[in-house]
Amino acid sequence: MERRILEYKAVPYQVAKKYMYERVREGDIISIQESTWEYFRKVVFWDDPEAASELVEEIVKQGVSREAAANIASICPKTEGELRSILEMDRSITSVHEMASKLYPIVSKYCKD
User: Other C-beta atoms within 10 Å of 37: how many?
Assistant: First the structure.
């Protein structure tokens, strides 16, 4: 079946895993997709795509890029220091420490043990 890319949008691993699962269920996947599926099965421990998407939207509302927000939701940092490390990627953030302090309570609400 032919597929076309209609849009590009950064999504957290949880959402990507859901889409990959649908492709795997269809049974028509190529080797890179199979490898990606195996990767997601090993690294995605918080398996709630809807909540991960909500977290991304809350982070974006605070002024963080969608790419960085998707990385935060994918990784689910457990400490403010881990969160700062991810925020360093977003060059539009002027004060990483301030933003991490602001976001950490939001991230903690979603990323529980």
Answer: 17
At 1 the pLDDT is: 63
- Give me 47's structure tokens: 């398996």
Cβ burial of 45 (10 Å; 0-12, 13-18, 19+) is: exposed
Determine the residue type at 92. Answer: S
Q: What angle do CA 67, 43, 104 make, to 5 degrees?
A: 50
pLDDT score, position 62: 95
Dihedral sign for Cα 92, 96, 102, 108, please: positive
Cα(49)–Cα(41) distance, integer angstroms: 14
